[in-house]
Amino acid sequence: MATRGVLWRPWRWLRSIRRMWIWPGYFLRLVPAYLSYFRPGFHPDDRDTRALVDHWNDRLFGADGELHERARPARIASGRTDAATSGAATADRLTGTVPLL
Predict the structure, then answer these.
(1) Dihedral, CA atoms, 29, 32, 35, 40, nearest 10 degrees?
(2) What is the pLDDT of residue 90?
(3) What is the mean pLDDT, run by run of 10 residues, along the chain of 101 residues?
């Protein structure tokens, strides 16, 4: 920001604040969800996310429970391919977690 000279132009800052908070109000739309997270007695299970979990399970895993080919990383940092860990890559179908090694 300093190299582009934006840092010392307060009207650019005001325009950004207006855009984020007033119109179209990207941050303002997040405030109700943010506050509901901090309400007393909140637990993440209060929200029904079964449809979301089912959607991503279907998208990431096939009917047989194997990870879709396009969801697999091409190469792991250790140099081992994902095919070498295919037994571990089947993952837990309920949580959708996929081990990296």
Answers:
(1) -160
(2) 47
(3) 76 89 90 90 90 91 81 62 48 51 45
Q: Which amino acid is it at 88?
A: A
SS3 84: helix
Number of continuous H segments (helices) and E segments (strands) in the chain:
3, 0
| Contact present, 81 and 41 (Cβ < 8 Å) | no
Residues 84 and 52 in one domain: yes
Q: Give dist(CA 62, CA 37) in Å, integer.
A: 33
Shared-domain flag, residues 53 and 85? yes
pLDDT given for residue 89 in this prediction? 46
Q: Distance from CA of residue 43 to its chain's centroid?
A: 19
